[in-house]
Amino acid sequence: MQDLLNDFSPGLFIIQTLLLLVLILLMVKFAWKPILSSLNEREEGIKDALDAADKAKRDMENLQADNERMKQEARLERDAMLKEAQAMKKKIIAEASEEAEKKAEEIITKAQTAIQNEKKVAINELRLQVAKYSIEIAEKVLEHELSDKKKQMKLVDTLVEDVKLN
Amino acid sequence: MHRILDRNFLILLTMKIFQHNLKTLALLLLVFVPITTYASSSGEGQVDTKEKVDGYILHHIQDSHDFHLFSYTNDAGERKHIGFPLPVILWSSEGLVSFMSSEFHHNDDGNVLVESNGLKFAKIHGKIFELNSGEEKVAFDDEKHATNAHKVLDFSITKSVFGILFVGLLMLFWFSRLAKQYKKQQIPTGFSRILEPLVIYVRDEIARPNIGEKHYRRFTGYLLTVFFFIWILNLIGLTPFGFNVTGQIAVTTCLAIFTLIIYTFSGNKHYWKHMLWMDGIPVFVKPVLAIIEFAGAFLIKPFSLLIRLYANITAGHIVVMSLIAIMFVLKNEIGVVGATGLSLVLSILITLIEVLVAFLQAYIFTMLSALFIGMAVEEHEHH
User: Alpha-carbon distance A117 to A127, whole Å?
Assistant: First the structure.
């Protein structure tokens, strides 16, 4: 203890106190303050950058999810549209064929009526013609037959016979 | 002629050693020339016996008024000391007195008197004494204490003050350069790149965890200054220049008192209440505990700080020098080669450990300072 006290130099203590005080003040002003604030700034910067990157990543993910969703929706819509179109096509085709059938039937009916009419007219004409020809033939036969008396009598007999029978 | 040659040689030698710090060193040399040689008057020869080694080591761990580099014996058998003198500044009974330390001619036992301002001064074991008026020669009692002289307040630029100034300038130079680099770039380059992680280390490993997130900023400047101050001085103490600044009790006392002042003045209400009138104990114990706590804060804490640093560094110096001295002391017992080999191996090993201790002591001092400050500013939630 005696040696310790003897070693203690008051002059050195005072000088050291002054120098250390000056050193602390100078270091704080010219070194530590700017260094620590720069370090802080840099660390904040790094943190912000990391946060921003994280946010960008999350945004990207959201965007991708959105895209996926939109794609899915579009696909569904397309499918629906296709289905609708298919149905429409079927319907149109069905309607058209129905219409065509109807028309065809109509045409056929008309044609049949026309044919029937024509047929009737033709038959009538034919009947008239046949009657005319029959009368002409009968005229000619009668003319020829009546030229012979004997034969005329024979015919009257036949006719009378027929009436008798009836 | 001889002196000039010596001086040039020494400047060249020193420059070679410190080429990378050339600018700083050249500046310092300019301030502290002339380098001189002294002839020893007390007839101290080579340091080669056990007693002389003891004396040399004790002399070394003390502060010194000269910057002594090395000694040799010339052809004429005269002992020569190489180094440069430092200014002696004294507060004597007649006011401030100053002269160069070379005027003592390297004498350390009071035989050489320096007259200045009508007063006579003698240097005895590293301390400067002022002779009482009318005395012509220092008289000693049986225990070799001067009887007719008294100590004076010594403001000399001693070797330690020189070291403090050197380290202070070095720190200012290094760290202000680091600070300037941030203005231009985000990542420092060159030597500053080594300094940056050290600064971050002190901030994040010492200041922040011990003081707490809320208050640490206020004290980081002090902690950083103290950490680098102690560490660099510890390391410089391991060089052959023989600084022993952090082994000076005056220096460690000053550092400890700075910490004491800081944590005393930043202590919050809870800190004082906890110290002087602790909660949760019987009333009659409170005064006893207050005394113990008070002594703890004002004596034990700073005392542990100052003694730990002083004792570790001084012990380190003594051990390294003792191991080097094996070379001379055990020369006769185990031969020159054996003694030199043993001394080299042991002193290299212990120097490696001392490099670690240099960091460790700076770390412990700063860490404990931070811890004490942290205890003073700690916030408690009210239950």
Answer: 15
Q: How far is CA B327 from the centre of its chain?
A: 27
Query: DSSP E strands: which ranges in B190-300?
Result: none
pLDDT at residue B381, rounded to an integer:
63
Question: Which of B172, B165, B168, B135 has the alpha carbon at shortest distance from B150?
Answer: B135
Q: pLDDT at residue B9 above 90?
A: no
Q: Containing H/E element for B286? A: helix B286-295
pTM above 0.80, yes or no: no
Provide the edge-to-edge strand list for the sheet that holds B149-151: B109-116, B119-124, B127-131, B149-151
The helix (run of H) or strand (run of E) holding residue A153 is helix A149-165
With residue A90 as reference, give the H or E element that holds it. helix A33-146
| Extents of the domains making up chain B | 34-157, 161-377
Any CB–CB contact under 8 A between B259 and chain A? no
The model's pLDDT over B68-114, given as tens digits with 9 standing for 90+, comes to 777 777 777 777 777 888 888 888 888 888 888 888 887 777 788 88
**HEC per residue, B140-154:** ECCCCCECCEEECEE
- What are the sequence ranges of the domains in chain A? 13-165
Is the Cβ–Cβ distance between A83 and A91 less than 8 Å?
A: no
**Full strand arrangement of the beta sheet holding B153-154:** B95-100, B87-92, B153-154
Q: Which of B155, B172, B253 sits opposite A27 (nearest CB)?
A: B172
Nearest-5° angle of CA B61, CA B258, CA B370? 100
Task: Decide: B207 and B370 in contact? Cβ < 8 Å.
Answer: yes
Residues of A at the B interface (Cβ-Cβ below 8 Å)?
4, 7-17, 19-20, 22-24, 26-28, 30-36, 38-39, 42, 45
Task: Tell which wins on pLDDT, B92 or B352.
Answer: B352
Q: Report the gap between the CA of A37 and the closest CA in chain B (Å).
A: 10
ipTM over 0.85: no
Query: Token digits for A159?
Result: 């006719």
